[in-house]
Amino acid sequence: MTLFSPSEDTIAAIATAISPGQGSIAVVKISGSSAIEISKKIVQIPGNQKWNTHTVLYGHVLAKNSKKYIDEVLVLIMKGPRSFTGEDIVEIHCHGGIIPVQMILERILEDSNVRRAEPGEFSQRAVLNGRLTLTQAEAISEIISARSRKAAELAMNGIDGDIQNTIKSIRKRLLDQLSEIEARIDFEEDLPILIEVDVKNELSKIKDALNKLIEDSKRGSLIRSGLKIALIGQPNVGKSSLMNRLCKREKAIVTDLPGTTRDLLESELVLEGIPVIFVDTAGIRDTENIIEKIGISRTQKALKSADVITLIYDYSKGWTPNDQIIIEQIPSNIPLIIVANKSDLKSNKSNKTIPQYILEKVQQIIISAKTGEGEETYINNLLKLCGAYQIQGVEIALNERQLDLTKSAKNSLENIEQVFEGKLPWDFWTIDLRDAINHLDQLTGEELTESLLDNIFSKFCIGK
Predict the structure, then answer these.
(1) How many CA atoms lie within 13 A of 35 on its CB side?
(2) I need a surface site. Which of 13, 35, 161, 237 has the fewest CB within 10 A?
(3) Domain with CATH 1.20.120.430 in the chain
(4) Burial of 304 per CB tally in 10 Å (0-12, 13-18, 19+)
């Protein structure tokens, strides 16, 4: 493992989200050899409280060159190596909001021995000091950004070491095969013959294990990233009513006037553990209204970025030529559900129905956004179309970086199949085996480079 020494600088940052009038407590975190010394300079501690490790002290932060209090605080002390970063850490817990916490951070940064932390620098130091593995640190970032309970569960599995242990187990199996092959290269006459088919079969099983990780991670991306569902259709077919029904609140304005929605409206909810963003779009029709035209243009752009499109039409009026024009504008590579809304209204049996050739490819669901009829059917079919019900057995979900490296390791094993078919000597097997092991080493952090660390931790929030 390539190690880089953490910076000797003492760093500080706000470690909690801040917002006006929100949060009763905020935390400023200091890490480094000068953390305790700096804290003693700015915090007045009454009585005989001792600055011992893993203790909490009560006091006040003082303004520079003044006895004026900035805020009343609690000070948490954790001396290294028994801390998150492995260094001395001081956390100053103050009142929430914006002003007190920012004033305390500014007061700390007035000291020449401390600087503002870079994004993810606390977690990076934890990795470099051996307090966390690389995959655990990445999982911490995942749990902070989790948008559903299932996403938080997957992140927690990563923090517990499930990703690290799984990859290390696969790596050991690869290393065992590499060791056997290299032993035959160096001491062929002294060892039993190694049967190529047996090695190939074991590598095939390892490739299957990597494939499972890849497939689980694809499903896990639904849990992390969620789905974007575009609701489209003519004006006044009930797009806004359907979104309000699904979100259980009046998110969109609903009137009998066509063209009410002029811009994209988004609302997020969690369905079966998956964050789902519904996008209510402007009704598509010919219009001379400049603002409505802009809204329709944005609708057409939204279609291209959607994971699923729901085309809504007025069931009481039947399928119209304008509905046909809209469906022909939908990108063919994006899954589609057709919703026949307003089933609560009397429909004329002579109204034109959807052409059969469309229904052979796309499912139609009859609903009433007003009464809720068909709502559960729509949600179930929507999740089924997205493959959401396949996530239940997913316990490990690699992030994008980890997934790319896993795919690279699998590709290296596939190259060995060509070596086997070509009946090439054992030396050629070791090339791709080493590549596969190297990719897994990069995933777990066994092989670290400065650029890799900078790339990973620059995406973390400041203070983590």
Answers:
(1) 30
(2) 161
(3) 159-222+396-444
(4) exposed
C-alpha distances (whole Å) from 230 to each of 129, 148, 435 are: 46, 21, 43
- DSSP tag of 422: T
Name the superfamily (CATH) of residues 229-306+308-385: P-loop containing nucleotide triphosphate hydrolases (3.40.50.300)
Q: pLDDT per position in the chain (464 positions), as tens?
A: 445 566 689 999 999 988 877 788 999 999 999 999 999 999 999 999 999 999 999 999 999 888 899 999 999 999 999 999 999 999 999 999 899 999 999 999 999 999 999 999 999 999 999 999 999 999 998 888 888 888 888 889 999 999 999 999 999 999 999 988 888 777 666 667 778 888 889 999 999 999 999 988 887 887 887 888 888 888 888 888 888 888 775 543 333 434 444 446 778 888 877 888 888 876 554 444 454 455 556 666 667 778 888 999 999 889 998 889 888 888 888 889 999 999 888 766 667 888 899 999 898 999 998 898 999 999 888 888 877 666 766 788 899 999 999 999 999 999 988 888 888 887 888 899 999 999 999 999 887 777 777 778 887 887 77
H-helix or E-strand spanning residue 107? helix 99-109
Q: What is the pTM of this model?
A: 0.77
Q: Answer whether CATH 1.20.120.430 is correct for domain 159-222+396-444.
A: yes
For the chain, give the number of residues: 464
In the CATH scheme, what is the homologous superfamily, with its name and number, of domain 10-130?
A: Probable tRNA modification gtpase trme; domain 1 (3.30.1360.120)
